[in-house]
Structure formats: structure tokens, C-alpha cells
């Protein structure tokens, strides 16, 4: 004879597992879609529904994911590992410095890797906060150097690159934020830091010194947290896109998502 209580419990457990699985899928899709516009999402869903209708079936996860990826070829394995270590480096250092939540990581955007970092309001705009910002910005490069023994141009080469942003922060610390080693009370803004740095070797040395210190500090944090760093890089390599909850599980347990205790 079937026990009604056991049957109900099994049904509830199955329903809970289904809900948890559906939630995980939605969170992964949301992470995959980081950087897309509302119009992009609307188009992707419309195309997924059309594909499912033609196949006389329900919409599948793969339909949405394929639409988000834009049917791009897979990222080459070596580049995928580089992206994974690079973004894991940012996330581990950001978490170690307690700057805020890591909203998501994605190494399959079609335009390289992507991270979405949140920041606490407290403690901002202090000397320590800017030093921490520099450390996080240099963490991807530190991760490459630590694991791969060589760095790529992925951290530089554009005005919005990590190296460009870090240089701007270090430059502002010296010239406009009141933290300079020389004449800290002078406010000396400039639209093109590169021009000033080319003309002032001493200032260039101070700015570069700040970047070197941040790079070394990021590397030291990654060495101390090497197991977590490697676990997150492996998880990101496998999943390619990780939401805030999944990233936090790895950062706090040091275990891949499938082994972390909920």
C-alpha cells in the first residue's frame, strides 16, 4: 500500500528540485545576457519561439542560449582558459577586499570576457578605496602572469581597458584627488593624461609605481587564495557564464558549484 504522506513528500521534493533547476537556468540565462539591450532580448525570445513553433515543441533553454550567443563558433580552448583565469582573478581580489558583490562573470560574450562587479557605498573615495580599486583593475593581468607566466594585450589597448582605467585612477590620485606624492593640494586636471605623462618623467614614474604596487598586491592575494582562484576559474571555464549566487558559492566554499552545500 502506498503511504500518502511519503507520496506527498516525494511530490513536494520533486517540485522543489524542478523549481530550483528552473531558477538556476533563468539565472544562467540572465548572466549570459549581460550587456544586451531590451530590444536584443525581445528579438532573441521571438526567434526562439519561432524555432520551437517550427519544431512543434516547447521553447528550450538551448534555443535562448543559442540566440544570446548569436550562433558564434566556440571560443578556442586556450583563449577560454585565459578568459577564465583573467575574470576569476578580478572576482577573487574584489571579494577578498570586500568591495561588494560579484554580480556575474561571462567569458562568452562575443567580444571577449565580461564581469559585473558591485560596490558598497561605505568607504568610497578614501585613499584606501582607490588603492583597492587599482588592485582589482590590475588583478586580471596579475592572474594571467601568475598562472600562464605571460600576459596578453587583453588588459590594455583601448580607452576602456583595465590598464587604461587603472592608469587614469593612478594619474588622478597624483593630480586631482589630493593623494599625490608631490604638491597633493594642487588640483591639476587634464583631458589627456598620456600627454602629461609623456612630458613629465617623474610623474610617469610615480603613476607607474602605483600600478606596479597594485599588480604585486593583486598577485599576493591570488597566491594566498590559490585554491579558490583555481576553483572559480575551472567553474567559469566549464559554465562560461556564472551568476552572482554561483560565483559566491565558489568564493566562500572553494568548491565547484556541483559540490557546494546549499
From TrEMBL:
The Gene Ontology terms for molecular function here are:
ATP binding; ATP-dependent peptidase activity; metalloendopeptidase activity
Residue span, Peptidase M41 domain: 83-249
The record, for InterPro entries, names: AAA_lid_3, Peptidase_M41, Peptidase_M41-like
**Pfam families, per this entry?**
AAA_lid_3 (PF17862), Peptidase_M41 (PF01434)
Domain AAA ATPase AAA+ lid, by residue range, is 26-65
> What keywords is this UniProt entry annotated with?
Hydrolase, Protease
Q: Among its keywords, does the record have Protease?
A: yes
GO terms, biological process:
proteolysis
Q: List, alphabetically, the SUPFAM superfamilies matched.
A: FtsH protease domain-like
Write the protein's name.
Answer: ATP-dependent Zn protease
Please give the organism: Ferirhizobium litorale
Ranked from the top, the taxonomy reads: Bacteria, Pseudomonadati, Pseudomonadota, Alphaproteobacteria, Hyphomicrobiales
Amino acid at each position: 500500500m502506498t503511504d500518502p504522506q511519503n507520496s506527498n513528500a516525494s511530490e513536494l521534493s520533486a517540485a522543489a528540485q524542478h523549481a530550483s533547476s528552473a531558477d538556476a537556468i533563468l539565472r544562467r540565462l540572465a548572466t549570459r545576457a549581460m550587456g544586451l539591450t531590451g530590444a536584443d532580448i525581445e528579438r532573441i525570445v521571438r526567434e526562439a519561439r519561432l524555432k520551437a513553433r517550427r519544431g512543434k515543441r516547447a521553447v528550450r533553454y538551448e534555443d535562448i542560449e543559442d540566440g544570446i550567443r548569436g550562433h558564434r563558433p566556440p571560443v578556442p580552448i586556450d583563449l577560454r582558459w585565459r578568459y577564465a583565469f583573467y575574470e576569476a582573478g578580478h572576482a577573487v581580489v574584489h571579494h577578498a577586499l570586500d568591495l561588494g558583490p560579484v554580480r556575474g562573470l561571462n567569458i562568452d560574450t562575443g567580444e571577449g570576457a565580461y564581469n559585473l562587479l558591485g560596490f558598497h557605498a561605505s568607504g568610497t573615495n578614501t585613499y584606501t578605496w582607490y588603492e583597492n580599486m587599482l588592485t582589482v583593475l590590475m588583478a586580471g593581468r596579475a592572474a594571467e602572469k601568475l598562472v600562464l607566466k605571460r600576459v596578453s594585450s587583453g588588459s590594455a589597448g583601448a580607452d576602456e581597458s583595465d590598464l587604461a582605467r587603472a592608469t587614469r585612477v593612478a594619474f588622478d590620485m597624483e593630480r586631482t584627488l589630493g593623494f599625490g606624492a608631490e604638491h597633493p593640494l594642487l588640483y591639476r586636471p587634464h583631458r589627456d593624461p598620456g600627454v602629461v605623462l609623456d612630458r613629465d618623467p617623474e610623474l610617469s614614474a610615480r603613476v607607474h609605481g602605483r600600478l606596479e604596487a597594485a599588480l604585486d598586491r593583486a598577485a599576493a592575494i591570488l597566491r594566498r587564495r590559490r585554491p579558490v582562484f583555481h576553483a572559480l576559474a575551472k567553474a567559469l571555464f566549464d559554465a562560461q557564464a556564472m551568476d552572482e549566487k554561483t560565483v559566491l558559492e565558489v568564493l566562500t566554499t572553494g568548491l565547484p558549484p556541483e559540490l557546494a552545500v546549499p
